[in-house]
Amino acid sequence: MIRRRRSQIRDYQAEARLFASRAIVAFFGIVVLMGLLVANMYNIQVNQFQDYQTRSNDNRIKVVPIAPNRGLIYDRNGVLLAENRPVFNLELTPEKIKDIDATIQELQTILEITPEQIERFHRERKRTRRFKSVPLLTQLNEKQVAVFSVNQYRFPGVEISATLKRYYPYGEVLTHVIGYVSRINDRDMQRLIREEKDANYQATRDIGKLGIEKYYEDLLHGTAGYQEVEVNSRGRVIRTLKYVPPVPGKDIVLNLDINLQLYVHQLLDGRRGSAIVLDPRDNGVLAMVSSPSYDPNAFVHGISGKAYRDLLNDKNRPLVNRTTLGIYPPASTIKPFMAVAALQEGVITPNTTRNDPGYWRIPNSDTRPFRDWLRWGHGRVDVI
Protein backbone atom coordinates (compact mmCIF):
# COMPACT_ATOMS: atom_id res chain seq x y z
CA MET A 1 0.00 0.00 0.00
CA ILE A 2 1.45 3.32 -1.08
CA ARG A 3 1.39 6.26 1.35
CA ARG A 4 1.11 9.69 -0.14
CA ARG A 5 3.16 12.58 1.23
CA ARG A 6 1.10 15.14 2.90
CA SER A 7 1.57 18.55 1.38
CA GLN A 8 2.36 21.38 3.86
CA ILE A 9 0.82 24.79 3.46
CA ARG A 10 3.28 27.71 4.23
CA ASP A 11 2.11 30.30 6.75
CA TYR A 12 3.40 33.55 5.23
CA GLN A 13 1.94 35.68 7.98
CA ALA A 14 3.80 33.73 10.70
CA GLU A 15 7.06 34.01 8.76
CA ALA A 16 6.55 37.75 8.37
CA ARG A 17 5.96 38.16 12.10
CA LEU A 18 9.09 36.09 12.87
CA PHE A 19 11.21 38.16 10.48
CA ALA A 20 9.89 41.39 11.95
CA SER A 21 10.67 40.29 15.50
CA ARG A 22 14.19 39.24 14.51
CA ALA A 23 14.76 42.51 12.68
CA ILE A 24 13.65 44.47 15.74
CA VAL A 25 16.05 42.49 17.97
CA ALA A 26 18.89 43.01 15.50
CA PHE A 27 18.09 46.72 15.27
CA PHE A 28 18.17 47.17 19.03
CA GLY A 29 21.38 45.11 19.19
CA ILE A 30 23.00 47.41 16.64
CA VAL A 31 21.75 50.47 18.53
CA VAL A 32 23.22 49.13 21.79
CA LEU A 33 26.57 48.34 20.16
CA MET A 34 26.68 51.77 18.50
CA GLY A 35 25.85 53.34 21.85
CA LEU A 36 28.71 51.47 23.52
CA LEU A 37 31.08 52.52 20.73
CA VAL A 38 30.04 56.17 21.00
CA ALA A 39 30.31 56.05 24.79
CA ASN A 40 33.79 54.54 24.56
CA MET A 41 34.86 57.17 22.03
CA TYR A 42 33.51 59.89 24.30
CA ASN A 43 35.36 58.42 27.26
CA ILE A 44 38.65 58.29 25.34
CA GLN A 45 38.41 61.67 23.61
CA VAL A 46 36.82 63.66 26.42
CA ASN A 47 37.24 62.03 29.81
CA GLN A 48 40.73 60.58 29.20
CA PHE A 49 41.91 63.23 26.77
CA GLN A 50 44.62 64.57 29.09
CA ASP A 51 46.03 61.12 29.81
CA TYR A 52 46.30 60.10 26.16
CA GLN A 53 47.64 63.50 25.19
CA THR A 54 50.40 63.06 27.78
CA ARG A 55 51.23 59.60 26.42
CA SER A 56 51.33 60.98 22.91
CA ASN A 57 53.61 63.80 24.00
CA ASP A 58 55.89 61.28 25.71
CA ASN A 59 56.39 59.60 22.35
CA ARG A 60 56.96 62.93 20.62
CA ILE A 61 58.62 65.08 23.33
CA LYS A 62 61.73 64.17 25.29
CA VAL A 63 63.29 65.85 28.29
CA VAL A 64 67.06 66.11 27.85
CA PRO A 65 69.04 66.92 31.03
CA ILE A 66 71.90 69.44 30.79
CA ALA A 67 74.95 69.12 33.02
CA PRO A 68 76.11 72.25 34.87
CA ASN A 69 79.65 73.57 34.58
CA ARG A 70 81.72 72.53 37.58
CA GLY A 71 83.00 75.29 39.84
CA LEU A 72 86.66 76.28 39.66
CA ILE A 73 89.24 76.12 42.46
CA TYR A 74 91.70 78.95 43.18
CA ASP A 75 94.52 79.52 45.66
CA ARG A 76 94.57 82.49 48.07
CA ASN A 77 96.13 84.73 45.38
CA GLY A 78 93.63 83.88 42.66
CA VAL A 79 95.81 81.33 40.86
CA LEU A 80 93.70 78.69 39.09
CA LEU A 81 94.28 75.22 40.55
CA ALA A 82 91.45 73.23 38.94
CA GLU A 83 89.83 74.21 35.65
CA ASN A 84 87.48 72.88 32.97
CA ARG A 85 88.87 72.32 29.49
CA PRO A 86 86.87 71.56 26.33
CA VAL A 87 87.41 68.07 24.91
CA PHE A 88 85.85 66.06 22.07
CA ASN A 89 84.34 62.63 22.76
CA LEU A 90 83.00 59.93 20.45
CA GLU A 91 79.60 58.91 21.81
CA LEU A 92 77.07 56.23 20.88
CA THR A 93 73.31 56.41 21.54
CA PRO A 94 72.06 52.79 21.97
CA GLU A 95 68.45 53.70 21.08
CA LYS A 96 69.53 54.77 17.58
CA ILE A 97 71.84 51.82 16.83
CA LYS A 98 70.54 48.40 15.74
CA ASP A 99 73.73 46.40 16.34
CA ILE A 100 76.18 48.08 18.72
CA ASP A 101 78.87 45.38 18.50
CA ALA A 102 78.88 45.53 14.71
CA THR A 103 79.04 49.32 14.84
CA ILE A 104 82.05 49.24 17.17
CA GLN A 105 83.80 46.73 14.90
CA GLU A 106 83.19 49.02 11.95
CA LEU A 107 84.51 52.01 13.92
CA GLN A 108 87.72 50.08 14.61
CA THR A 109 88.46 50.16 10.89
CA ILE A 110 88.90 53.95 10.99
CA LEU A 111 89.82 54.64 14.64
CA GLU A 112 92.05 52.92 17.17
CA ILE A 113 89.83 51.48 19.92
CA THR A 114 91.34 49.26 22.62
CA PRO A 115 89.55 46.31 24.29
CA GLU A 116 89.76 48.20 27.59
CA GLN A 117 87.88 51.16 26.09
CA ILE A 118 85.21 48.82 24.72
CA GLU A 119 84.84 47.12 28.11
CA ARG A 120 84.52 50.50 29.84
CA PHE A 121 81.88 51.54 27.29
CA HIS A 122 79.75 48.44 27.98
CA ARG A 123 80.00 48.99 31.75
CA GLU A 124 78.84 52.57 31.32
CA ARG A 125 76.10 51.50 28.92
CA LYS A 126 74.57 49.08 31.46
CA ARG A 127 73.82 51.88 33.92
CA THR A 128 72.72 54.43 31.29
CA ARG A 129 69.28 54.79 29.72
CA ARG A 130 69.00 53.77 26.07
CA PHE A 131 68.21 57.25 24.80
CA LYS A 132 71.30 58.77 26.48
CA SER A 133 74.64 58.82 24.70
CA VAL A 134 77.56 56.84 26.12
CA PRO A 135 81.21 57.81 25.44
CA LEU A 136 83.37 55.26 23.66
CA LEU A 137 86.45 57.42 23.08
CA THR A 138 87.42 60.53 25.02
CA GLN A 139 89.81 63.37 24.30
CA LEU A 140 89.88 62.93 20.53
CA ASN A 141 92.67 64.74 18.75
CA GLU A 142 92.21 66.81 15.60
CA LYS A 143 93.11 63.92 13.30
CA GLN A 144 90.58 61.57 14.93
CA VAL A 145 87.86 64.21 14.71
CA ALA A 146 88.61 64.78 11.03
CA VAL A 147 88.66 61.05 10.18
CA PHE A 148 85.32 60.39 11.85
CA SER A 149 83.68 63.51 10.42
CA VAL A 150 84.40 62.27 6.90
CA ASN A 151 82.86 58.85 7.70
CA GLN A 152 80.04 59.94 10.00
CA TYR A 153 77.34 59.19 7.40
CA ARG A 154 78.17 55.50 7.81
CA PHE A 155 77.40 55.48 11.54
CA PRO A 156 73.86 56.53 12.50
CA GLY A 157 73.60 57.05 16.25
CA VAL A 158 77.32 57.85 16.58
CA GLU A 159 78.45 61.44 16.97
CA ILE A 160 81.20 63.66 18.32
CA SER A 161 80.27 65.85 21.28
CA ALA A 162 82.17 68.71 22.87
CA THR A 163 82.20 68.66 26.67
CA LEU A 164 84.16 70.23 29.50
CA LYS A 165 86.64 68.01 31.32
CA ARG A 166 88.40 68.68 34.62
CA TYR A 167 92.08 69.53 34.38
CA TYR A 168 94.68 70.08 37.10
CA PRO A 169 97.50 72.29 35.76
CA TYR A 170 99.82 71.58 38.71
CA GLY A 171 99.45 67.80 38.47
CA GLU A 172 100.99 65.79 41.30
CA VAL A 173 101.84 68.89 43.37
CA LEU A 174 98.24 69.22 44.61
CA THR A 175 96.83 65.71 44.30
CA HIS A 176 96.58 65.04 48.04
CA VAL A 177 94.96 68.43 48.66
CA ILE A 178 92.51 68.95 45.81
CA GLY A 179 91.97 65.29 44.98
CA TYR A 180 90.32 64.63 41.62
CA VAL A 181 87.05 63.83 39.86
CA SER A 182 86.40 60.63 37.95
CA ARG A 183 83.53 58.76 36.32
CA ILE A 184 80.48 57.98 38.42
CA ASN A 185 80.49 54.27 39.26
CA ASP A 186 77.78 52.00 40.67
CA ARG A 187 78.77 52.76 44.26
CA ASP A 188 78.54 56.51 43.63
CA MET A 189 75.14 56.13 41.98
CA GLN A 190 73.78 54.03 44.86
CA ARG A 191 74.89 56.72 47.31
CA LEU A 192 73.31 59.46 45.19
CA ILE A 193 70.04 57.51 45.10
CA ARG A 194 70.09 57.04 48.88
CA GLU A 195 70.68 60.77 49.33
CA GLU A 196 68.00 61.56 46.69
CA LYS A 197 70.51 63.48 44.56
CA ASP A 198 70.51 61.22 41.50
CA ALA A 199 68.13 63.47 39.54
CA ASN A 200 70.74 66.24 39.65
CA TYR A 201 73.34 63.92 38.10
CA GLN A 202 71.36 62.63 35.09
CA ALA A 203 73.65 64.45 32.65
CA THR A 204 76.82 64.35 34.79
CA ARG A 205 79.50 61.73 34.23
CA ASP A 206 82.14 62.77 36.80
CA ILE A 207 82.03 63.22 40.56
CA GLY A 208 84.54 64.22 43.23
CA LYS A 209 86.47 61.21 44.51
CA LEU A 210 89.08 62.65 46.88
CA GLY A 211 90.14 65.79 48.70
CA ILE A 212 88.52 69.17 48.11
CA GLU A 213 86.73 67.84 45.03
CA LYS A 214 84.88 65.27 47.15
CA TYR A 215 84.36 67.30 50.32
CA TYR A 216 82.81 70.26 48.47
CA GLU A 217 81.05 68.19 45.80
CA ASP A 218 77.63 69.75 46.46
CA LEU A 219 79.01 73.28 46.03
CA LEU A 220 81.21 72.53 43.04
CA HIS A 221 78.70 70.46 41.06
CA GLY A 222 75.89 72.99 40.60
CA THR A 223 72.29 72.33 39.53
CA ALA A 224 71.37 70.50 36.33
CA GLY A 225 69.14 72.14 33.72
CA TYR A 226 67.02 70.54 31.00
CA GLN A 227 65.36 71.13 27.66
CA GLU A 228 62.16 69.71 26.22
CA VAL A 229 62.68 68.81 22.57
CA GLU A 230 60.33 67.54 19.88
CA VAL A 231 61.70 64.55 17.99
CA ASN A 232 60.61 62.66 14.90
CA SER A 233 60.18 58.90 14.53
CA ARG A 234 63.95 58.48 14.11
CA GLY A 235 64.71 60.36 17.30
CA ARG A 236 66.12 63.40 15.51
CA VAL A 237 65.45 66.70 17.27
CA ILE A 238 63.04 68.89 15.33
CA ARG A 239 62.78 71.86 17.67
CA THR A 240 63.30 72.92 21.27
CA LEU A 241 60.07 73.57 23.17
CA LYS A 242 61.46 74.61 26.55
CA TYR A 243 64.90 75.40 27.91
CA VAL A 244 65.88 75.68 31.57
CA PRO A 245 69.57 76.59 31.86
CA PRO A 246 71.77 74.77 34.39
CA VAL A 247 73.18 76.65 37.37
CA PRO A 248 77.01 76.44 37.41
CA GLY A 249 78.79 75.21 40.53
CA LYS A 250 80.33 77.63 42.99
CA ASP A 251 83.97 78.62 42.69
CA ILE A 252 86.15 77.91 45.74
CA VAL A 253 89.12 79.92 47.03
CA LEU A 254 91.55 78.02 49.28
CA ASN A 255 93.93 79.31 51.95
CA LEU A 256 96.64 77.49 50.03
CA ASP A 257 99.55 79.43 48.51
CA ILE A 258 100.60 77.61 45.35
CA ASN A 259 104.09 79.16 45.34
CA LEU A 260 104.73 77.89 48.87
CA GLN A 261 103.21 74.54 47.92
CA LEU A 262 105.60 74.25 44.98
CA TYR A 263 108.55 75.17 47.20
CA VAL A 264 107.73 72.53 49.84
CA HIS A 265 107.10 69.93 47.13
CA GLN A 266 110.51 70.73 45.66
CA LEU A 267 112.18 70.35 49.07
CA LEU A 268 110.76 66.86 49.56
CA ASP A 269 111.95 65.97 46.06
CA GLY A 270 109.97 62.73 45.78
CA ARG A 271 111.21 61.30 49.08
CA ARG A 272 108.70 59.69 51.41
CA GLY A 273 107.32 62.22 53.86
CA SER A 274 104.82 65.00 54.41
CA ALA A 275 104.87 68.66 55.35
CA ILE A 276 102.19 71.14 56.43
CA VAL A 277 102.66 74.90 56.70
CA LEU A 278 100.11 76.75 58.88
CA ASP A 279 99.40 80.43 59.29
CA PRO A 280 99.75 80.95 63.09
CA ARG A 281 97.26 83.83 62.98
CA ASP A 282 94.26 81.73 61.94
CA ASN A 283 95.65 78.17 61.49
CA GLY A 284 94.98 78.43 57.76
CA VAL A 285 96.76 75.77 55.71
CA LEU A 286 99.26 77.53 53.44
CA ALA A 287 100.86 74.36 52.10
CA MET A 288 100.19 70.64 52.50
CA VAL A 289 102.41 68.19 50.67
CA SER A 290 102.49 64.40 50.72
CA SER A 291 105.39 62.77 48.89
CA PRO A 292 105.63 60.89 46.63
CA SER A 293 102.49 61.74 44.70
CA TYR A 294 100.85 61.00 41.32
CA ASP A 295 99.17 62.88 38.47
CA PRO A 296 95.40 63.18 39.15
CA ASN A 297 94.65 63.89 35.47
CA ALA A 298 95.19 60.19 34.75
CA PHE A 299 92.13 59.37 36.89
CA VAL A 300 89.98 62.09 35.32
CA HIS A 301 90.25 60.53 31.86
CA GLY A 302 90.11 56.94 33.08
CA ILE A 303 93.35 55.38 34.24
CA SER A 304 94.37 52.10 32.62
CA GLY A 305 94.44 48.90 34.64
CA LYS A 306 98.21 48.58 34.26
CA ALA A 307 98.90 52.16 35.38
CA TYR A 308 96.66 51.70 38.43
CA ARG A 309 98.34 48.43 39.38
CA ASP A 310 101.72 50.13 39.12
CA LEU A 311 100.58 52.76 41.62
CA LEU A 312 99.20 50.11 43.97
CA ASN A 313 102.40 48.08 43.85
CA ASP A 314 104.75 51.04 44.21
CA LYS A 315 106.77 50.45 47.40
CA ASN A 316 106.74 54.20 48.12
CA ARG A 317 102.90 54.12 48.28
CA PRO A 318 102.12 57.33 46.36
CA LEU A 319 98.36 56.75 46.77
CA VAL A 320 98.63 57.24 50.55
CA ASN A 321 98.04 60.80 51.77
CA ARG A 322 100.67 60.95 54.49
CA THR A 323 99.51 64.36 55.75
CA THR A 324 96.15 62.96 56.88
CA LEU A 325 96.70 59.20 57.14
CA GLY A 326 100.29 59.07 58.37
CA ILE A 327 100.89 58.68 62.13
CA TYR A 328 104.04 60.46 63.29
CA PRO A 329 105.24 61.53 66.78
CA PRO A 330 105.14 65.35 67.00
CA ALA A 331 108.60 65.55 68.66
CA SER A 332 109.73 69.10 69.47
CA THR A 333 107.07 70.70 67.27
CA ILE A 334 104.66 70.41 70.21
CA LYS A 335 106.85 72.51 72.54
CA PRO A 336 105.75 75.98 71.35
CA PHE A 337 102.07 75.04 71.70
CA MET A 338 102.56 73.66 75.21
CA ALA A 339 104.66 76.69 76.23
CA VAL A 340 102.06 79.18 74.99
CA ALA A 341 99.27 77.27 76.76
CA ALA A 342 101.26 77.14 80.03
CA LEU A 343 102.06 80.86 79.88
CA GLN A 344 98.45 81.74 79.09
CA GLU A 345 97.11 79.66 81.99
CA GLY A 346 99.73 80.97 84.43
CA VAL A 347 101.29 77.57 85.05
CA ILE A 348 104.73 79.05 84.30
CA THR A 349 106.28 82.48 83.78
CA PRO A 350 108.94 83.59 81.29
CA ASN A 351 111.51 83.12 84.09
CA THR A 352 110.45 79.62 85.18
CA THR A 353 113.18 76.97 84.83
CA ARG A 354 113.16 73.18 84.98
CA ASN A 355 115.93 70.60 85.24
CA ASP A 356 116.10 68.19 82.31
CA PRO A 357 117.83 64.94 83.45
CA GLY A 358 117.31 63.28 80.06
CA TYR A 359 113.95 61.67 80.76
CA TRP A 360 110.45 62.49 82.01
CA ARG A 361 107.90 60.40 83.88
CA ILE A 362 104.24 61.22 84.43
CA PRO A 363 103.96 62.47 88.06
CA ASN A 364 102.53 60.04 90.63
CA SER A 365 102.54 57.13 88.21
CA ASP A 366 104.50 53.96 87.58
CA THR A 367 104.69 54.45 83.82
CA ARG A 368 107.95 54.02 81.98
CA PRO A 369 110.16 57.09 81.58
CA PHE A 370 110.06 59.00 78.28
CA ARG A 371 113.64 59.49 77.10
CA ASP A 372 115.14 62.64 75.62
CA TRP A 373 117.18 62.36 72.44
CA LEU A 374 120.14 63.58 74.55
CA ARG A 375 120.69 60.75 77.03
CA TRP A 376 122.22 62.89 79.81
CA GLY A 377 119.66 65.67 79.34
CA HIS A 378 119.91 69.41 78.69
CA GLY A 379 120.31 70.47 82.31
CA ARG A 380 118.57 73.63 83.48
CA VAL A 381 116.19 74.99 80.80
CA ASP A 382 113.59 77.75 80.60
CA VAL A 383 110.72 78.50 78.24
CA ILE A 384 113.01 80.29 75.81
CATH topology of the largest domain: Penicillin-binding protein 2a (Domain 2)
Tell me the name of the CATH homologous superfamily of the largest domain: Penicillin-binding protein 2a (Domain 2)
Largest sheet: 5 strands, mixed
- Backbone CA Rg: 38 Å
Domain module count: 3
Total strands: 16
What's the arrangement of secondary structure elements?
Layout: H1 12-47, H2 49-60, E1 61-66, E2 73-74, E3 80-92, H3 100-107, H4 115-126, E4 134-137, H5 142-151, E5 158-167, H6 175-178, E6 181-183, H7 186-194, E7 206-208, H8 211-215, H9 217-221, E8 225-231, E9 237-244, E10 252-253, H10 258-268, E11 273-279, E12 284-291, H11 297-300, H12 305-313, H13 322-325, H14 335-345, E13 353-356, E14 359-360, E15 370-371, E16 379-382
Parallel strand pairs: 2-10
Antiparallel strand pairs: 1-8, 2-3, 3-4, 3-5, 6-7, 8-9, 11-12, 13-16, 14-15
Descriptive key words:
about 375 residues, alpha+beta, Penicillin-binding protein 2a (Domain 2), 3 domains, 5-stranded mixed beta sheet, 3-stranded antiparallel beta sheet
Brief summary of the model shown:
The protein has 384 residues and is α+β, with helices and mostly antiparallel strands. It is built from 14 helices and 16 strands. A hairpin with a 5-residue loop joins strand 8 and strand 9 (237-244).
Give your account of this protein's structure.
The longest helix is centred in the first third of the chain and has 36 residues. The chain contains 14 helices and 16 strands. Strands 2, 3, 4, 5 and 10 form a 5-stranded mixed β-sheet that branches. Strands 1-8-9 form a 3-stranded antiparallel β-sheet. A two-stranded antiparallel ribbon has the order 6-7. The chain has 3 domains: 191 residues, Alpha-Beta Complex (Penicillin-binding protein 2a (Domain 2)); 58 residues, no CATH class; 52 residues, no CATH class. 36% of the residues lie in helices and 22% in strands. With 384 residues, the chain is α+β, with helices and mostly antiparallel strands. One of its GO terms (biological process) is proteolysis.
